[in-house]
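pinging the channel bc i need a second pair of eyes. not urgent but kinda urgent?? the chain im working w is below, pasted from the shared doc
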Amino acid sequence: MADVDLLRKKVSAFVRDRVFPSEPDLDAGGATAAHLRERLRAEARASGLWALPLPAELGGGGLSLSAYATIAETEGASDHGPAALGSASLLDVTMLSRHGSARVGAEYLPRLVSGDLRTCYAMTEPDTPGTEPALTTTRAERGPGGGWRVTGRKWFVSNAGDANLVTVLARTGGSAGDRSGLSLLLVPTGSPGFRVVRELPILGATGQYEIEFDGVEVDEDHLVGDAGQALAVAGERLQLGRTLRALRWLGQAQRAFDLLCDRAVARQGARGPLADRELVRQHVFESLLALRTARPLVHEAMALVAGGQDAHVEVGLAKTAAARTLQAVADRAVQVFGAAGLGPDTPLPALFRTGRTARILDGPDEQHVSSVARRVLRSRRGSAVTPA
């Protein structure tokens, strides 16, 4: 296995020199973006940087999650980094390796690792709170010839516009509010009855979609995990997914911090550089403090997730801290840049937008605050000492 620190340095150089300059074209989408993305992927393969955390037997780099953690932070400094470097499918490859059928593994896993297939994950519904999956209304019923027929609608599904496969949460038994009776099914998007309804720009950015299932037929062996046990599989996926995103948000927060510091040193005013002003120094200090505080929380969470341990508290802390840090540091960087930080010549608008959406998507701050506090207090009840 290659030296992890050397790999991290090579990934950092690739993202800085190849991905950062390509961001405007990648953000624009369309044929040009698709062609550019494939070129970046080819360069990543040629550089030995492709799919570093994915299984070696499937064509990946074979890095463990703990070894990949610092690379994930570096790679995630750009939203396009994971896709360009082949690690964007890590969640789906992990989930399907553990819970997919033999056919699903043989047919899809090698092509996911190679980048020939693209996936998305659909849980949230237009009229159902994303924090309450037990209220899911999308249904999967037994088809006349076996398998399942899926009917329902999902929204805020990342990357659904060009996905080949979608993992959908649907009710296969019970009634609304039951935590049992929910299942995950892997649906090829070319199936009759599947439709992309519309794109849902988030603060002006593309990449989120509303999708519909109108009696889509799904083979029995495309059930992910056991029928009725979706929340266990989804919970496992969410712990890893939230931690990976937190690592990538740290990478983007570090990028915003570097931009802030470079601007403070380089920008000259009538009274000298911005770096000489106390309020600018306060922005630097508060940003550094936020980064140094969040980073250990995120890496602690990843160590527990990688070790297969319960990490609900640590993941909740990490996700919330990283999202807040990205938004706060990007906001301070915009303030130091002034009007230039609001325009198209820096990545700061995109970094701020990601930070702001991070505090809602994948579980809002309030959910994590309540969940973490509830678990901490529950653990104290059994050991509480009654005052004399």
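so The first strand starts at residue 119 and ends at 122. and The first helix runs from residue 4 to 19. — does that match what u expected or am i reading it wrong
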